[in-house]
Amino acid sequence: MVTYLQKALEYIKMPTNAVFALDIAPITINKLPTNLYVTGIELLDVINPFSNRALVRVIGDLKNIRIGDNVKIGPTANSRVIIEGIITEKNEGLRELVISINKLIAIPKVKVETLMSKNVTTIGHGSPLRDAARVFAEKKIRALPVVDDDDRIAGLITTSEIARAYYEGNLNAKVGDYMRRDVPTIDKEADLYDAMKLMTVNKIGRLIVVSGAKPVGIITRTDILQYLASLD
């Protein structure tokens, strides 16, 4: 636990005796999303490795929050910190929580291309849907970036679209007829934190990584979680 705190404190460059961060971050309680948001975090007892706590100021109704709930905060918008722990105190009047910290991670500045899977398989927008179904079966994947005649990203086709085409009796259709056209992408030079925000905003688990509008990889939520776990 001390390792997490040392890394985070060094990253956000604040004093180690007490840290107050004016920051905005979502809160998850018992692994469920909430309508609560953090507006400030003060780290308490940082010099004591056996008693790391955070005083958290919150926007929202704390009525359904209970002592002993598991909480995850972040990542915060500015200091890029994630806190996980257990609620030990709450003050509804002041809208404050005290959290016993189990984990505190500062997200380092890492380019998306560092973590992305580079062996990306694509399919042309004019290809038959049967070709996409074959690739899904052979590669054991669920989604394929779709490219146009210039190899630029044009959309995404998933097993869900194949199933819909089968249901509609249109397996002779082209990939372009069923692909999703509004597909979130991210540049390979972008920051990891930007990828996390895009996934959260769009409620998706993967992003197509592009360079000059051409797909060069895929980054998934699993890739990011594995990387954050390695920061121990």
Which properties best describe this structure?
CBS-domain; alpha+beta; single chain; 232 residues; 2 domains; three-stranded mixed β-sheet; elongated; six-stranded antiparallel β-barrel; disordered N terminus
Number of domains: 2
> Number of helix segments?
7
Please identify the structural class as seen in this structure.
Answer: alpha+beta
Number of strands: 12
Structure description:
It is a single chain. This protein has 232 residues and is an alpha+beta fold. The protein folds into two domains: 105 residues; 118 residues, CBS-domain. It is built from seven helices and twelve strands. The strands form three sheets. Strands 1-2-3-6-5-4 form a six-stranded antiparallel barrel.
Topology:
Layout lengths: L1 H11 L6 E11 L2 E13 L8 E7 L10 E4 L7 E11 L4 E11 L5 H4 L7 E2 L4 H11 L3 E5 L5 E6 H9 L7 H4 L6 E3 L4 H11 L3 E6 L2 E7 H9 L3
Parallel strand pairs: 7-8, 10-11
Antiparallel strand pairs: 1-2, 1-4, 2-3, 3-6, 4-5, 5-6, 8-9, 11-12
